Amino acid sequence: MNSAKEATTVVTKEQVLDALRDVEDPEVHRSIVELEMVKDITIEGSSVSVKVLLTITGCPLRTVIEKSVSDKLLELPGIEKAYVEIGTMSDEERAKFAGKLRGKSEAQSTPAILQPDAGVEFLAVASGKGGVGKSTVTANLAKALANEGLRVGVIDADIYGFSIPGIFGVKDARPTVIDELIIPIEVDNVKLISMHFFVPNNNPVVWRGPMLGKMLRNFFAEVHWGDVDVVLLDLPPGTGDIAMDVHQLLPKSKELIVTTPQANAADVAVRAGIMGLRTNHEIVGVVENMAYFQCPGCGEKTYLFGRGGGEEVANALKAPLLAEVPIASMDALASGIFAVDSPQGQAFKDLAKRIIPALGLAVRV
Ligand SMILES: Nc1ncnc2c1ncn2[C@@H]1O[C@H](COP(=O)(O)OP(=O)(O)O)[C@@H](O)[C@H]1O
Ligand SMILES: [Mg+2]
């Protein structure tokens, strides 16, 4: 004699879908139910089987999805066995999927992330010259902001001199592209996009101005940023086409200036001049990088590169000096991202705490 449990199904298809609503695609961070990735639900007695369609075959995240789906199904009352089959979308299904991700923006010429109601703050990190640690500051500040609970994106706008993927240790990563929609590379809750990901074998980028501007625009329009609170842009040094493009694309962007301690009046003037070109960009502050070396044993500070550069630039730009980042030893620099408990990591934590209110953001809990 069959028990009542075996004779009738214990849950409905709707309940199965409801249970899976919380499962997100690990790459695009949207519900797999909402994205219509769940198909062929069959319930027989206490066992349930579903098919989940992924965008590409051999998707490295398939086991993650498989497990989260199976776990959720087994939480359903009366369900004892769960079977998850992983399939691949047809071209048509993939196009529909990309359409869902693009959402409203598809019909609009302004990319979703640049819509005034998107609620995303932009912070461009700039410097008068190269080698002052602009990319290092961008990357470490991004990480520190993420540590404070913000959802952070980084655009490596240094199209020729890209270095953000190297700093985050993801040089070999290649973003998933779904129907021409690019999924950013995510490292420790920071979403990254860089020209590096699109250049085979580190070939030099040889595009001219207009093409560069187009590339930069693509970083906004063709990338699925999802929900982000703040996007940092690592600008190329000095003035130039890209800086002007950023100004045009992001008239409301705020700006953080990175400098070194060498006090040099001419340099300050150059930097102030650069800012003059971007009059609308509010400068939130100045970071003095490689400010001093602190003896690990005795704590004594040595000002290897002189003093006063940060303060001088800050005064010239009428902006606050927000951080003095100490010089790191080669060991501490090995990974590009400083350890949270290192003097540099602490400086970035403090900087993040100052930047959050300056951007009008609140810490998420
Ligand atoms: N606080 C620091 N202490 C020691 N070395 C640093 C520090 N900040 C940056 N560097 C190093 O200086 C070099 C230039 O930094 P980078 O961030 O690439 O500068 P930029 O983007 O301005 O050209 C890199 O090798 C980087 O590792
Ligand atoms: Mg750089």
UniProtKB/TrEMBL annotation:
GO biological process: iron-sulfur cluster assembly
Annotated PROSITE patterns: MRP (PS01215)
CDD domains: Mrp_NBP35
Binding-site residues, ATP: 128-135
SUPFAM superfamilies, A to Z: Fe-S cluster assembly (FSCA) domain-like (SSF117916), P-loop containing nucleoside triphosphate hydrolases (SSF52540)
InterPro entries (alphabetical): FSCA_dom_sf (IPR034904), MIP18-like (IPR002744), Mrp-like_CS (IPR000808), Mrp/NBP35_ATP-bd (IPR019591), NUBPL-like (IPR044304), P-loop_NTPase (IPR027417), YlxH/NBP35 (IPR033756)
Pfam family, one: FeS_assembly_P
UniProt KW keywords: ATP-binding, Hydrolase, Iron, Iron-sulfur, Metal-binding, Nucleotide-binding
Example GO molecular function: ATP-dependent FeS chaperone activity
Domain MIP18 family-like: 13-85
Keyword Metal-binding attributed: yes
Gene3D superfamilies, per the entry: Fe-S cluster assembly (FSCA) (3.30.300.130), P-loop containing nucleotide triphosphate hydrolases (3.40.50.300)
Stored HAMAP family: Mrp_NBP35
Entry function: Binds and transfers iron-sulfur (Fe-S) clusters to target apoproteins. Can hydrolyze ATP.
Subunit record text: Homodimer.
Family: In the N-terminal section; belongs to the MIP18 family. Belongs to the Mrp/NBP35 ATP-binding proteins family.
Protein name per the record: Iron-sulfur cluster carrier protein
Organism: Alicyclobacillus mengziensis
